[in-house]
Design goal:
Blueprint: E1 4-10, E2 16-17, E3 23-24, E4 33-35, H1 50-57, E5 65-72, H2 76-100, E6 107-113, H3 118-131, E7 136-141, H4 149-163, E8 168-176, E9 188-191, H5 193-208, H6 213-220, H7 223-228
Parallel strand pairs: 1-5, 1-7, 4-9, 5-6, 7-8
Antiparallel strand pairs: 2-3, 8-9
Helix pairs in contact: 3-4, 5-6
Length: about 230
């Protein structure tokens, strides 16, 4: 039985709210250059690093799920997440599904309040984990959102990976957009999956009481070989 591929992305806060309440100028569409993972190469411009992930990992005929995390509230940041989802994310998802011949029932949405208190973070962790079903193969983007968001998302993925039956993590990514003083630098998309697996590696090294855990970690993620070459 084929696994269901699930793609998770937080909606960005970027945008300009006008006096009439409308939002314009969301995240810029760019062509990301893949770092360390050729599957993330995508020839088109996109506002969302999860799009190159879908392009690289979803196969024609796949029935996929897409989960968008939105912030609720009256402040501009929260309003922007809803605008960016409807104005940019949903059309891009529809486009890539058409190009790749992918089946998608709907974009599932997780709503979280515009707050960073612990109750909000724990509720978000629970909501993400609940969306992951046994047998799912998870792909996630940690680019957008609040500072705690990548931590919460990683914890939820770790929970599902370790405690739900036959859940796997295919790829996690981070998109780096050049700052104003880096205008000549290309936007980059990094495969951060080894960092996700670091928790399991550290737990295993603790269990076996490894004498040189740093060296063991480097060997496990292939860093030792690249440093020696």
């Amino acid at each position: 039985m084929n696994k269901t591929k699930v793609f998770i992305s937080t909606m960005p806060f970027l945008g300009q709210r006008q006096s009439d309440g409308t939002v314009t100028s969301g995240p810029a569409a760019v062509k990301y250059k893949a770092v360390g993972n050729p599957k993330l190469e995508y020839p088109m411009e996109t506002r969302f690093p999860i799009i190159p992930v879908i392009n690289g990992y979803a196969d024609s005929g796949d029935n996929i799920r897409v989960i968008a995390i939105l912030t609720d509230g009256e402040k501009s940041n929260a309003v922007n997440t809803h605008y960016n989802c409807s104005a940019y994310f949903e059309p891009e998802i529809k486009k890539i599904c058409g190009e790749k011949n992918l089946s998608l029932n709907e974009i599932e949405k997780i709503h979280t309040p515009d707050s960073e208190d612990m109750d909000t973070q724990l509720k978000l962790f629970s909501d993400i984990a609940d969306k992951i079903n046994p047998g799912d193969e998870i792909y996630a983007c940690i680019t957008y959102g609040t500072k705690p968001m990548p931590i919460i998302l990683t914890l939820a993925l770790n929970y599902a990976y370790k405690l739900k039956k036959d859940v796997s993590v295919g790829c996690t990514v981070y998109g780096r957009f050049p700052h104003k003083d880096e205008e000549s630098a290309p936007p980059l998309i990094y495969d951060t999956t080894p960092l996700f697996h670091m928790d399991s590696i550290i737990s295993k090294l603790f269990e076996i009481k490894a004498k040189d855990p740093v060296k063991a970690i480097k060997l496990m993620i292939g860093l030792e070989a690249s440093e020696d070459s």
